[in-house]
Design goal:
8 strands; 13% strand
Length: 297
């Protein structure tokens, strides 16, 4: 494989070759194919990316447009009609539970396909999501209060949530509390409308089966499945690129152990592109049984 071949394979899989998606069926097919997608492109100069590694991922907006030229970042998306229309389609996926959101890469929305989400939850979510928030000292007092109200009265739009919290809480403080809970997968956005904004619910109530499956998955099994799906979505990647993607979720040393285990099991293989050695999925041999990580992811 050459660099140009890898580039073209990614452009086709990521729908950057003019095949813009418009229907909910096309959006679901795209996300299930790649596993994970950023909502908007992340540019190195973005304030949110200062000190963060760049990640190799498709974007939902690019797939909606059918290309990756002249696209806005999250900060400028509000003024771009294409971004607004792509967001409406993404919200439909969330409503139908065909996708789930996280904010592992800062404030930029990160979409996870429904079939992959239990494995993602096993790494990023809480093993005891129903516990009293006041017992979780890793949460800020504001996040604890927000979570208690959503547990008791959700799903709630942000405006209604602010009314229930009372006081002189600023919108910025509310956003920080929601972001903290969203990052830890305590809550998830379940709807949006222009008048009320986003609505939030606790994830264990919104998606009980996915959360229950994720709670009972081992970290090594979940990581192996996610590694396979990530490589399926990006075609091939180097150890640093893989580590950069998984670094918000798990230590790089654990990623390296999982890569070595998948190589030993002949689930992965090396491919040489120029002077780089990348990982890719090994071809499925006709006499072999289906691989568990690919079957579930």
């Amino acid at each position: 494989m050459t660099d140009q071949e890898l580039h073209e394979l990614r452009r086709h899989k990521w729908r950057l070759d003019g095949r813009s998606m418009r229907t909910i069926e096309e959006a679901c097919e795209f996300l299930e194919s790649v596993g994970f997608a950023l909502m908007y492109p992340i540019f190195p100069e973005d304030p949110d990316m200062r000190g963060r590694p760049e990640v190799v991922l498709p974007t939902f907006l690019s797939a909606w447009v059918g290309g990756d030229e002249n696209l806005p970042s999250r900060q400028r998306a509000f003024a771009d009609p294409r971004a607004q229309q792509a967001t409406e389609l993404a919200i439909r996926l969330l409503r139908e539970r065909s996708a789930y959101e996280s904010s592992v890469f800062g404030e930029d929305n990160f979409l996870v396909a429904a079939s992959v989400f239990p494995y993602f939850y096993a790494l990023a979510g809480e093993r005891n999501p129903r516990q009293d928030p006041r017992l979780d000292r890793s949460l800020s007092p504001l996040a604890q209060d927000v979570l208690i109200i959503i547990q008791q009265s959700g799903p709630l739009a942000k405006r209604r949530l602010a009314e229930k919290l009372g006081g002189d809480l600023s919108e910025a403080a509310m956003d920080r509390g929601l972001a903290e809970l969203k990052t830890r997968l305590h809550i998830t956005r379940v709807d949006y409308n222009p008048s009320d904004g986003s609505s939030w619910d606790v994830l264990y109530r919104w998606a009980p089966e996915a959360v229950n499956e994720g709670m009972h998955l081992s970290v090594p099994a979940a990581l192996s499945a996610l590694l396979s799906k990530y490589l399926d979505g990006v075609i091939a990647a180097g150890e640093k690129e893989i580590g950069d993607f998984f670094s918000p979720l798990i230590a790089r040393s654990k990623v390296k152990e999982a890569l070595n285990a998948l190589l030993a099991a002949r689930e992965l293989e090396f491919v040489h592109i120029g002077n780089r050695t990348l990982f890719q999925l090994a071809p499925v041999r006709s006499l072999e049984r289906p691989r568990s990580s690919r079957r579930h992811a």
